[in-house]
Amino acid sequence: MNLKSTFASNSDQAILEEAIRGEKKALEDYNEILKEADLPAFTKAVLENHREKVQSALDHVKTMK
């Protein structure tokens, strides 16, 4: 995320868009990692839990936009 320029613009819209972009990227990364077939069950469960929280945060930020 390019937070410095986003905050420098002092635009709520720009900040929300940057947050959405960052959360979407995090979800892509989690989804890619979770495709690994050889993850231990505990690790997979932790990653899935984190992914769900990122998705929830993304949904929340989208409603603020």
TrEMBL record:
It holds the Pfam family DUF2383. Residues 1-36 form the DUF2383 domain. InterPro entries: DUF2383, Ferritin-like, Ferritin-like_SF. This is DUF2383 domain-containing protein.
